[in-house]
Amino acid sequence: MVLTGSQILLESFQKEGVDTIFGYPGGAVINIYDDIFDSPIEHILTRHEQAAVHAADGYARCTGKVGVVIATSGPGATNTVTGIATAYMDSIPMVIVTGQVPTQLIGNDAFQEADMCGITRPCTKHNFLVQDIRDLARTIKEAFYIARTGRPGPVLIDLPKDIQVAKYKFKYPETVNLRGYKPTYAGNSRQIDKAAKMFLEAKRPVLYVGGGTNLSAANEQLLRLAEMTQAPVTTTLMAMSAFPQRHPLALGMLGMHGTFYANMSVTECDLLIAVGARFDDRVTGRIDSFAQKAKVIHIDIDPTTIKKNVAVDLPIVGDLKDVLGRLCDKLAEKEEALQKLVETTGDWRVTIEEWKSSHPMTYQTSGSVIKPQFVIEKICELTADDAIITTEVGQHQMWTAQFFQFSQPRTFLTSGGLGTMGFGLPAALGAQVAFPGRQVIDISGDGSFQMNSQELATLVQYRLPVKIAILNNNFLGMVRQWQQMFFDRRYSQTCMELPIDFIKLADAYGATGLQATKVDEVEKVVQQALETPGPVLMEFKVAREENVLPMVPAGKGIHEMVLAS
Amino acid sequence: MKHTISVLVENEFGVLSRISGLFSGRGFNIESLSVAPTLEPNVSRMTLVTRGDDRILEQISKQLNKLISTIKVIDFTGDEYVERELALIKVTAEAESRAEALRIVDIFRAKVVDVTPRSYTIEITGAPGKVDALLELLRPMGIKEVVRSGPVVIGRGSKAVAG
Prior knowledge:
The structure holds two protein chains of two kinds. Chain A contains 24 helices and 20 strands. By secondary structure, chain A is α/β, with parallel strands linked by helices. In chain A, the strands form four sheets. A six-stranded parallel β-sheet of chain A has the order 3-2-4-5-7-6, with helices on both faces. In chain A, strands 11-10-9-12-13-14 form a six-stranded parallel β-sheet, sandwiched between helices. Chain A has a six-stranded parallel β-sheet with strand order 16-15-17-18-20-19, with helices on both faces. In chain A, helix 1 (5-15) packs across helix 2 (30-36). In chain B, the strands form two sheets. In chain B, strands 5, 6, 7, 8 and 9 form a five-stranded antiparallel β-sheet that branches. Chain B has a four-stranded antiparallel β-sheet with strand order 2-3-1-4, covered by helices on one side. Chain B is of the alpha+beta class. Chain B is elongated. The chains are: A alpha/beta, B alpha+beta. The A-B interface holds A 117-118, 121-122, 125-126, 129, 131, 146, 178-181, 302-304, 307-308 and B 9-10, 13-14, 17-18, 21, 25, 55, 58-59, 62-63, 65-71.
């Protein structure tokens, strides 16, 4: 079958099981869009290319499938970069196709030309410039394969306009052979045996769980491991939904805004089992006081994360699902030793319970002013267990991680590594496209919301019933908090002085706007939003100078927290 | 500590920038880099010299391996290997210094590859230390220009790296 390049692209997408493309048309992809007109694949037109990438990212995060984006050359392509970098830092599988000027014009500073392979080299897992129509199908096959295997990540295909119109016999390759890319899935048996031995000898073990657990869909294996060993589990921001937060073994988040008991547990443990986590600086705080009493087992599919930031006693490279599953099997064989482990670690769990009751995760409640934490607790209380929560970046994001009790995998979508403001709304859009029947809620701040607020239009156009909760304090709250604590309350450029009428803004786009200014209105507004069909924007006028606590100041060890009074 | 690393890569669009970008982006040091195709035309071999402690070198090796275009990474440090660099040196050679320059060239088993009434261009091949030593001796005469290739290395013995 002889097809044009753009037809080959869309046919290949179908072979890869793509049902939705997020994108934005333009001159250098106009041929692709002409074929999209007749394609069974759904296309969601966002109002900005950055939002298209975040939407595909949200779609990928909650489904585990590869998110797909199309954008035009030049500015369309450069607009995708923040979205790509966001996905790269959080290891999200995506394929981004950007149009490019015709091959004979590349390098000529042609109209809407940008060197996308050059620009995205450090923020993609891999990228391709297609220079020959004969390579196109194989390139797409490889792009999807690279994106979804190993440690997942975004892959960019830069597709010149002349390749889109060139014709070639279409045959989608069955297999991929990349001699430089062979990810390790099966963990080394001897290392797993050693890990079991170390585990059984531990007196104060802690499981330190990262986003890899969701990516590998190893949630069941993790739960089994935790329960059979009765080891407490602390989760990173990326993994809040990887382990049920109401579980008695859950310690909540660790690190800069982690719980007292999670940070103390990590500081005092004698065995730290890092599971698909990468010892980010926001997790470790001052590195030379992080888990100093512990032997460290590090399990990850990406060898570069091992020994990057901390010394590791036992590295295991492999897929978590495989490694944790086999570790559980190994431990289950040693029934007696396992029994003994549960007994000997009893004191450790008592200590942790004491920390939990002496310093619970809490905040000062108020009857006169809406506390942002209260809003999050109410949303958590009133939504379904499988509701998908997205956030932007800042205080509201940390409060969500601290006060929302996640119970199902892949229900918390947030930009962890890059910390991208403006992520949450388009990510919620993508999640709602993936799961039209589920509750999808973007918890936002007034600052972040305005970074991609144009996506209200997309929600309304596609009738996507995303609920947006803006915790409005008229501040860029997280920066303001730092200025308060470390810069003598000099609030330089963090006060959003123009009060936005968010209700009118929602109205202008044809969405419903609801507002709560008093404490007793909060529950009503959340309830009403959930019952209202279509997109709803909720604005909560919250305490303006509330701080996220506990907090580990920069340069301090994670046990040196500033606590809520 | 200095390390000499060979990297076999797919000989494709942008591969050099992937390697050099990796070094600059992660703050790794790179002292020299040389690249050319191997017996297999779609495979290139890079030889690069870098510095760092064990932890950094482990990261460099892992990060290079992580690139999709990388086929194989060999760190020669601690192994037996032959290391050679080529240098072309344009040196002032007038009247009294002409004979002295030739004597030095002779001692180093270097070659004069271009002559003018006022200069010699000298070709030398050897371990980088040998090139350094020659430059040191020629310096008093006035070195006008130096071009060094950066070292390439190959392991000793009959075992070979394919590609």
